């Protein structure tokens, strides 16, 4: 195989997977590879995969097949959670050149170089010393950037592969995070979203995520802070207080609940109840009354009865989420739930998902409608579809379209004049005469 010179990274998973994709690209660039805008043109394509549901995993194999047909000479590296879960099996089944797990990707450039001159290479180690120390510094980023502060999960929900693909819960050191935040701001970020599989479990032994957010609030040039994904049991009072006290912490909380039925939550090993979840939300709303709430839901967990599903509907009716993600349960190899009795038929899952999404969509539209007439600051992230149109994000994470908007990276005040199911329309606010 000729020595590869160009690369392209394609990310398929969650926000942390996207963050990993950026850092792999930076590692490849630092090693002298040039970035190709299009996957077809690249000598090496890095597929940064997701294992969370069956569909995501199967997509990897169909993608590899398609790529091999199109350009048999192209080098393929499989990274991400499927790489961790399936390891050498991917090399056997799909004849790829490199397999690299989420904790080993600082070695990607070397693995690519070795595979170019020899046999396929694999690294799915979860080393004691974290990859972060071995990665190059951040370069250019957009106005809204991700920063991983915590990785891995010790919760072992019975349906979930993440504890296996990402390993144990590890918090990055306070100073390393603040340093990376400053580098991101220097590289163009105005907003940082702190990432972790259980981001609110972040701790350095003394301080919690609330303290970290307070420290980041003091970073010059950082206008907005967000964090995701949180676990209901790790919402410390310090973090809840931060929502009341830290101006740059945006009024948005993604707090997955999965089900409204205590029996199902127990079978999922969620270790919170319907009631304890609702009580956490009450405290958060007391601290920040205008907070937008988001959640994740799974329908059709093994054994879920119609009445238990209706408990989820009634919880949703009680909370009125601003945004939500809902999924049909997908049995994952190696997880306890995959072997549980009472697997639910596909038609039942389809029906429940539709009913749930109908309510969630209605709630999202109602939340969007309720912002009409409000004045708020938006961060411009990219150009819109039509000439002159720009797209920004509201404090509540809604997409806001402005005609003739200012350039990417601007923070501007707008009046929200209209709302659609998935976006708002804003008009630059005219300053009131004093
Ligand atoms: N750490 C986060 C996110 C985990 S993955 C958390 O605890 O909430 C993101 C979402 O995918 C989960 O919240 C869950 O709703 C969904 N999910 C995870 N495993 C799944 C499975 N086997 N089938 C269907 N959805 C799943
Ligand atoms: Fe998966 Fe549960 Fe951990 Fe979230 S808390 S990553 S759903 S095991
Ligand atoms: Fe997918 Fe791994 Fe994220 S399984 S959701 S890419 S942690």
From TrEMBL:
Localization terms from the record: Cytoplasm
Cofactor: how and how many bound: Binds 2 [4Fe-4S] clusters. One cluster is coordinated with 3 cysteines and an exchangeable S-adenosyl-L-methionine.
Domain Radical SAM core stretches: 139-366
E.C. code: 2.8.4.3
Location of the MTTase N-terminal domain: 5-117
Organism: Sphingomonas donggukensis
Keyword S-adenosyl-L-methionine among record annotations: yes
Matching InterPro entries: Elp3/MiaA/NifB-like_rSAM, Methylthiotransferase, Methylthiotransferase_CS, Methylthiotransferase_N, Methylthiotransferase_N_sf, MiaB_methiolase, rSAM, rSAM_horseshoe
The entry's keywords: 4Fe-4S, Cytoplasm, Iron, Iron-sulfur, Metal-binding, S-adenosyl-L-methionine, Transferase, tRNA processing
Purpose: Catalyzes the methylthiolation of N6-(dimethylallyl)adenosine (i(6)A), leading to the formation of 2-methylthio-N6-(dimethylallyl)adenosine (ms(2)i(6)A) at position 37 in tRNAs that read codons beginning with uridine.
Pfam families attached to this UniProt entry: Radical_SAM, UPF0004
SMART domains noted in UniProt: Elp3
Oligomer and partners: Monomer.
PROSITE patterns: MTTASE_N, MTTASE_RADICAL, RADICAL_SAM, TRAM
Tree of life domain: Bacteria
Gene expressing this chain: miaB
Top EC category: transferase
CDD domains membership: Radical_SAM
Binding site for [4Fe-4S] cluster 1: 14, 50, 81
Residues holding [4Fe-4S] cluster 2: 153, 157, 160
Reaction catalysed by this enzyme: N(6)-dimethylallyladenosine(37) in tRNA + (sulfur carrier)-SH + AH2 + 2 S-adenosyl-L-methionine = 2-methylsulfanyl-N(6)-dimethylallyladenosine(37) in tRNA + (sulfur carrier)-H + 5'-deoxyadenosine + L-methionine + A + S-adenosyl-L-homocysteine + 2 H(+)
Record domain TRAM: where: 369-430
Main location per the UniProt record: cytoplasm
Family recorded in the similarity comment: Belongs to the methylthiotransferase family. MiaB subfamily.
Keyword field contains Lyase: no
Protein name: tRNA-2-methylthio-N(6)-dimethylallyladenosine synthase
Co-factor requirement: [4Fe-4S] cluster
């Amino acid at each position: 195989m000729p020595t590869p010179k160009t690369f392209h990274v394609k990310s398929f998973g969650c926000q942390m997977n996207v963050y990993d994709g950026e850092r792999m690209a930076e590692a490849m660039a630092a090693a002298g590879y040039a970035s190709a805008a299009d996957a077809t043109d690249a000598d090496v394509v890095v597929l940064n995969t997701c294992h969370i549901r069956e569909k995501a995993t199967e997509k990897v194999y169909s993608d590899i097949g398609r790529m091999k047909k199109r350009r048999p000479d192209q080098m393929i590296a499989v990274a991400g959670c499927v790489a961790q879960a399936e390891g050498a099996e991917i090399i056997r089944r799909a004849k790829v050149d490199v397999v690299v797990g989420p904790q080993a990707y600082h070695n990607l450039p070397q693995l690519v170089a070795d595979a170019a001159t020899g046999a396929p290479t694999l690294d799915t180690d979860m080393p004691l010393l974290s990859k972060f120390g071995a990665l190059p510094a951040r370069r250019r980023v957009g106005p809204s950037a991700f920063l991983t502060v915590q990785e891995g999960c010790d919760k072992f929900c019975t349906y979930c592969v993440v504890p296996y693909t990402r390993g144990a819960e590890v918090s990055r050191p306070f100073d390393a995070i603040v340093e990376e935040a400053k580098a991101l701001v220097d590289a163009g970020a105005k907003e940082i979203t702190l990432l972790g599989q259980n981001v609110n479990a972040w701790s350095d032994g003394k301080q919690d995520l609330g303290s970290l957010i307070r420290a980041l609030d003091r970073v010059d040039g950082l206008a907005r802070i967000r964090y995701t994904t949180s676990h209901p049991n790790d919402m410390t009072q310090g973090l809840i207080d931060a929502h009341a006290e830290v101006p740059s912490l945006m009024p948005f909380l993604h707090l997955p609940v999965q089900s409204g039925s205590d029996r199902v939550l127990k079978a999922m090993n969620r270790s919170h109840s319907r009631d304890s979840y609702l009580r956490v939300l009450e405290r958060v709303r007391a601290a920040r009354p205008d907070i937008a709430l988001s959640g994740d839901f799974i329908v059709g967990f093994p054994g879920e009865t119609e009445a238990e599903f209706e408990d989820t509907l009634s919880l949703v009716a009680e909370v009125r989420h601003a945004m939500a993600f809902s999924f049909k349960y997908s049995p994952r190899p190696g997880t306890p739930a995959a072997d549980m009795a009472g697997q639910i038929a596909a038609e039942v899952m389809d029906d429940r998902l539709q009913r749930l999404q109908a309510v969630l969509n209605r709630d999202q539209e109602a939340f969007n409608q309720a912002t009409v007439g409000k004045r708020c600051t938006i961060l411009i992230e990219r150009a819109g579809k039509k000439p002159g149109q720009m797209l920004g994000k509201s404090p509540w994470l809604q997409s806001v379209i402005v005609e003739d908007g200012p350039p990417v990276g601007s923070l501007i005040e707008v009046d929200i004049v209209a709302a659609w199911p998935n976006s708002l329309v804003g008009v630059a606010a005219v300053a009131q005469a004093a």
